[in-house]
Design brief:
The complex is a heterodimer of chains A (about 625) and B (about 425). The relative contact order of chain A is 0.10. In chain A, a hairpin with a 5-residue loop joins β2 and β3. Chain A has about 625 residues and is of the alpha+beta class. In chain A, the strands form six sheets. In chain A, strands 2, 3, 4, 5, 10, 16 and 17 form a seven-stranded mixed beta sheet that branches. Chain A contains 22 helices and 21 strands. In chain A, α10 packs antiparallel against α20 and α13 crosses α16. Chain B is built from 19 helices and three strands. The termini of chain B are close together. The chains are: A alpha+beta (about 625), B mainly alpha (about 425). The interface between A and B is large, with 35 and 46 residues.
């Protein structure tokens, strides 16, 4: 039109105009990712609605855990601009000094991160403040959900909630930074049931973060689903009584309803008040608990502590022998103050049954806890087969049927296997396989290599009470009012042992309480036939490579009533001495409490409560563990 | 020469109508961006949209004055205007008001004025006056030097005042110089350097070297086949091309890795879509690319027909920074959709193309070069501003004529345009 020279600007204009039209057409008409995806649109904010976390009740409907809504006034110091300090203080009902002090503190913490300005507002204050909040730039109100524990008990079972860590967020995209999740106990195990499902709302917002309406009329929104309430199998009163009895002691108590596998009490001592693991104080308190090497309150002794079961294991031992056909109820042995299992001068297991060479059978063996009788039992079990290897494996398999030596599968996030050795175990230590029954004879009396946790022992005694089966112990009875249906906690696990074989054993266990000379004769109850067995476990710790003997663990297992048992219980008290000294009375008191809802012998209960093993053991353990300072009594 | 007859003014109605449409559309958009959400009072002169209304009123007064001044006045006094405007620009160093770290404004109370907007006009006048002289020849080094001085004085001052966007506009005069007869090779060489630089960054050093050398070799082989003596005849040219292309590629690579600051690199990465890590992209979009990213999201959300006047939730939510000045086109995109944005683009195209067309028709050389200057200035504003808002170019602060809020820029563009309309309208009497 006007020559080469002038056409450049002409061409450039047309080219850029066309480029813009194409680009606009692409952005506005073809590429619909901005228009149809609410997440892509930054004027649409995603708001989460957190449902209330489920409550937790005990088996009788007593409230154990609920929620406390609290409102905190938060401040981001750098964003505070031109506010009317006087009227703000008036609304908060605070004076100017408070304002200055708090602002200084917040600024010191961080000028750009939110700090709490005033915490735990009442609902009325919240309502009044909420309306006027927009006037105060840099301040906002944060709703906070706190867990509340009306009874300061069962922290080990209930667990606690805390903010999710990054690992969890990576694994489970449901969670966002800063959200809360169960980190221990039932709170962790039943997290999904308790938390419900958060709702998502997409709202249009302006750049000042003020909502101006819902996005596309709420087309993409989802409602939150409230958390489900849990009913535990725990009996609050029994649990608290157990905790009271274990005052100033280390140990665990597990009580199970044999017919259902429901855990009635799961006590560990020392424990802590669950209310200290709530809110802002949690991390501080957690560190205090974590660093308490003397009491180790975070260690759940009922689930995690692996102790030698001592003489209580004799019950399993005799049942295994009867089942394997190595013994009959009529088989007798004699005891001359002990059992000689080898030719060496030290190959002798002492016994204090006091039967002086009189032949004794199963019942007397049990109620007098005769070591000779059970050493014979164990030896015969192993020698019943062609070689000790096979014998031990047969024995081990039978014992494991009681839920020992493996994870029991309790519905709590922690646990331990314990140890029931088999042939392979000893072959490892004796590569020539030159071991014999007598080499492992300590297993006969629950010492040696055998380790069990209190809950495994309780499950064992429940199996005996059931005459041959158990249901995996569990702490949750109902979810949202409906009984649990998980087959793991509703189906019987059979040991395969003939129920009739249990009767003579149970006779012996009854005589432990009722026959003079029975090891728990002084712990019997009026009006109910108790069956039980004491145990006393030697224990050592290693200090600088040297074995140091500590005071024995006091152990007791029991169930009651003899017919239609309602409760099976295992009690461990670390360094408590003989089983009959502390563990047996505790078991008896617990059974009394559960069956009769009263205590026949309150004086005894008080005496047990008052026993202070901390004091007894402190100086001894202090030097061993290298602890400093004096004992801090709770 | 001067028998000026008022009745013989024939304004070009296409230009005037386009101007009026753009100004109206522009004000509506400013109203949409800065207007209140609920209570509407268009005569609220405390708000930006109210002030802009006053600016528009003043513009009409300016138009009346401009149209009544004789054509010779503009040409004769162009040098004076130029010097005055440069002095005003220099005066900013002493009396300028500092706004956001830039001292580009004189302040009279709450009212501010930006001299650089007017320097564009005076430079266009002065340049046209120079080029209008028949004896002036760009092939002469002496004359080229004068032109260079004329253009680089304002560029240097404005860059020193940190207004890179305005300085960029002065490069638009290259179109005028090309028209006057500046060798087109200047243009292609500039273009080529930019191309080499960008492709080196985008593709990396070795791929660029390989591809371009292969292309060159291919071209020369093709040329030799067509014309057996090509190589022998053009030996020097061939070798120079090879050496300079390779040298430029290495230089680009060197400049990129040793001279550019990390934040410059980040911008280039984002613009050239080099960054591939989604996390880094997200981070860049929150920092350097934040404005552009918000801008295209806002435009895209408008869809084909737009959300409707005053209905743009992102505009109402003030999501796009500087939306009433440099990013105003995003509001057009959101509220009037593809239809509205395309209309604005087409209106600008009409304006520029009409200016070029009209410039070519001028008998007076002064008027012709002036018309070219006006078209070039509008072109750079149009291309750079909308290119940036559509995320095709990196962020450069440069207003969209008649749309971006501000009295100085509106008046500057109005004066620029109407001086040409006046020159054009009286051309018949101009002999």
């Amino acid at each position: 039109m006007f020559g080469k020279k002038g056409s450049i600007l002409f061409i450039f204009t047309i080219l850029s105009g066309l480029l813009f039209l194409v680009r606009l057409f692409y952005l506005q008409v073809i590429d619909d990712s901005y228009r149809n995806n609410p997440m892509n649109n930054s004027s649409v904010a995603t708001k989460y609605e957190y449902p209330n976390r489920g409550f937790i009740y005990d088996r009788n409907g007593e409230l154990l855990v609920n929620n406390l809504v609290s409102y905190d006034v938060m401040v981001i110091p750098r964003e505070v601009k031109e506010i009317d300090t006087a009227s703000f203080c008036e609304l908060l009902e605070e004076d100017k000094d408070f304002f200055i002090k708090k602002m200084e503190k917040a600024r010191k913490y961080s000028p750009i991160r939110p700090s709490i300005f005033a915490d735990q507002l009442s609902k009325e204050d919240y309502a009044a403040l909420q309306e006027k909040m927009f006037q105060f730039k840099g301040f906002y109100i944060q709703k906070r959900m706190l867990r509340m524990y009306p009874h300061p008990t069962s922290a080990n079972v209930l667990g606690y909630i805390s903010q999710v860590n990054e690992a969890t967020i990576e694994k489970n995209p449901y969670y966002q930074m800063g959200e809360l999740t169960g980190t221990q106990g039932v709170e962790k195990q039943y997290e999904e049931e308790l938390r419900g499902k958060k709702g998502v709302r997409f709202v249009n917002k302006n750049i000042h973060n003020i909502e101006v309406g819902s996005y596309k009329g709420g087309k993409y929104d989802t409602l939150s689903i409230p958390g489900k309430d849990l009913t535990l199998t725990l009996d609050l009163e029994l649990q608290q009584f157990g905790e009271w009895l274990l005052n100033n002691k280390w140990g665990g108590i597990v009580a199970i309803e044999p017919s259902s596998g429901e855990i009635l009490a799961l006590v560990t001592a020392p424990n802590y008040d669950p209310n200290i693991m709530v809110g802002r104080e949690r991390s501080k308190n957690f560190n205090v608990l974590y660093n308490d090497k003397f009491s180790k309150p975070l260690f759940d002794r009922a689930l995690q502590a692996q102790y030698p079961p001592g003489s209580t294991f004799k019950i399993v031992n005799i049942l295994a022998a009867l089942h394997l056909g190595a013994m009959t109820p009529e088989t007798t042995t004699t005891c001359h103050g002990g059992y000689r299992y080898g030719r060496g001068p030290n190959d002798f297991m002492a016994c204090h049954c006091g039967t002086h060479g009189r032949p004794i059978a199963i019942r007397e063996g049990i109620f007098r806890s005769c070591n000779s009788y059970f050493a014979t039992t164990y030896k015969r079990s192993l020698e019943h087969f062609t070689n000790p290897q096979e014998g031990l494996n047969q024995w081990s398999n039978t014992v494991k049927k009681f839920g020992m030596g493996e994870f029991l599968g309790v519905d709590l996030p922690i646990g331990q296997k314990g140890l029931i050795p088999d042939a392979e175990y000893y072959n490892h230590w004796y590569p020539q396989k030159n071991w014999r029954a007598s080499t492992t004879i300590s297993n006969a009396i629950g010492q040696g290599q055998i380790l069990t946790t209190p809950i495994q022992l309780a499950n064992m005694v429940a199996t005996v009470a059931n005459r041959g089966f158990y249901i995996t112990p569990h702490v949750v009875k109902k979810i949202d009012g409906k009984p649990i249906t998980n087959p793991k906690y509703t189906t019987k696990k059979e040991t395969g042992i003939d129920p009739t074989l249990f009767e003579p054993v149970i006779d012996g266990m009854q005589m432990v309480f009722e026959s003079p000379g029975g090891t728990a004769y002084w712990s019997q109850l009026k009006g109910v036939h108790l069956c039980g067995k004491t145990g006393t476990a030697e224990n050592f710790i290693k200090v600088n490579g040297k074995k140091v003997t500590l005071e024995d663990h006091s152990i007791f297992i029991a169930f009651a009533p003899r017919e239609n048992p309602k409760i099976a219980i295992a009690v461990f008290v670390e360094n408590g001495g003989f089983g009959s000294r502390i563990a047996a009375p505790i078991a008896s008191l617990m059974i009394d409490k559960y069956l009769n809802d009263s205590i026949q012998n309150p004086v005894k209960a008080q005496t047990i409560h008052d026993i202070d093993l901390y004091k007894e053991q402190y100086n001894h353990k202090k030097t061993l563990l290298g602890l400093n300072g004096t004992l801090q009594q709770k | 020469m001067a028998h000026f007859n008022k009745n013989s003014l024939h304004v070009d109605w296409v230009l005037v109508l386009t101007y009026l449409l753009l100004v109206t559309f522009g004000w509506l958009t400013i109203f949409a961006v800065t207007g209140p959400d609920t209570f509407i009072d268009i005569f609220n002169f405390k708000e930006s949209y109210g002030k802009q209304l006053i600016f528009i009123g003043f513009s009409f007064m300016l138009i009346a004055i401009l149209l009544s001044i004789e054509n010779q006045f503009y040409e004769q006094y162009s040098g004076v205007f130029y010097i005055i405007s440069i002095l005003l620009l220099l005066g900013l160093f002493a009396f300028g008001k500092n706004i956001n770290g830039q001292t580009n404004w004189y302040a009279f109370g709450s009212f501010t004025i930006q001299p650089s907007e007017f320097v564009k006009v005076t430079t266009a006048l002065a340049l046209s006056s120079l080029l209008g002289d028949n004896l002036f020849d760009l092939k002469k080094f002496k004359d080229l030097r004068i032109v260079a001085l004329l253009l680089f004085v304002p560029i240097v001052i404005i860059v020193l005042q940190k207004d890179v966007g305005s300085a960029l506009v002065f490069f638009s005069f290259i179109f005028v110089l090309l028209r006057k007869g500046l060798s087109i090779q200047f243009f292609w060489i500039m273009f080529g350097i930019a191309f080499l630089f960008i492709s080196t960054i985008k593709l990396g050093l070795s791929p660029t070297l390989i591809i371009l050398n292969l292309l060159l070799i291919g071209f020369f082989i093709y040329a030799t086949k067509k014309q057996p003596l090509f190589f022998r005849k053009n030996m020097v040219m061939v070798i120079t091309t090879f050496v300079s292309v390779n040298l430029l590629i290495f230089l680009s690579s060197f400049a990129y890795s040793n001279i550019l600051e990390p934040h410059h690199k980040d911008r280039l990465h984002l613009w050239l879509r080099i960054e591939k890590s989604p996390e880094k992209i997200r981070e860049l979009k929150q920092t350097y690319g934040y404005n552009n990213n918000q801008s295209i999201q806002t435009i895209a959300s408008g869809g084909f027909a737009g959300k409707g006047f005053l209905q743009g939730d992102r505009t109402n939510g003030k999501f796009v920074p500087a939306q009433y000045t440099d990013y105003i086109f995003s509001a057009v995109g959101e509220e009037f959709g593809f239809l509205g944005s395309a209309l604005v683009v087409i209106l600008f195209m009409i304006l520029i193309l009409r200016l070029v067309y009209k410039a070519e028709m001028q008998k007076s050389k002064f008027a012709r070069y002036y018309g070219y200057s006006v078209a070039s200035i509008f072109f750079v504003h149009f291309a750079v501003n909308i290119g940036m808002v559509l995320d095709l170019l990196p962020t450069v602060g440069i207003p969209l004529p008649f749309f971006s809020y501000g009295g100085s820029s509106l008046w500057g563009f109005t004066i620029l345009l109407f001086i040409f309309i006046k020159l054009d309208g009286t051309r018949l009497d101009d002999f």
